[in-house]
Design goal:
Blueprint lengths: L3 E4 L2 E4 L4 E7 L8 E7 L6 E7 L5 E3 L7 E6 L4 E6 L8 E8 L12 E2 L3 E6 L1
Parallel strand pairs: 2-11
Antiparallel strand pairs: 1-3, 3-8, 4-5, 4-9, 5-6, 7-8, 9-10, 9-11
Length: about 120
């Protein structure tokens, strides 16, 4: 069983930045895929960003491309999401996800999930 714990959420003004971090209970190189999803109030959960553990492939949703950056730190066993130029529509609970298996899809099929961290962007 893999435990994921998100941190770094909070309240920020439009145009501001936040850095989310996901602490994993296993060394990140054993997790083939790492991802961030989000769910706004009243909406379905949506894919934000994901990567293979070695960084050989990284995908972003069109809504965050150019503003968000996913990364992982194998020494700290964390997966981070740097969020810049935040907009009110980025307001959501952000979830970290991970999986031990590598697949062609980075946007789904994750076995392990964190409990989420709230990000609120004020206008």
């Amino acid at each position: 069983q893999v435990t994921l714990v998100e941190s770094g959420g909070g309240l920020v003004q439009t145009g501001g930045s936040l850095r989310l971090s996901c602490a994993t209970s296993e060394q990140t190189f054993t997790l083939q895929r790492l991802a961030w999803f989000r769910q706004a109030s009243g909406k379905e959960r949506e894919f934000v960003a994901a990567m293979y553990w070695d960084g050989s492939r990284i995908d972003y949703s069109n809504s965050v491309k150019g503003r968000f950056t996913i990364s992982r730190d194998n020494a700290k066993n964390t997966a981070d999401l740097q969020m810049n130029s935040l907009k009110p529509e980025d307001t959501a609970v952000y979830y970290c996800a991970a999986d031990r298996y590598s697949t062609n899809s980075l946007s789904g099929g994750y076995a392990y999930w964190g409990r989420g961290t709230q990000v609120t962007v004020s206008s």
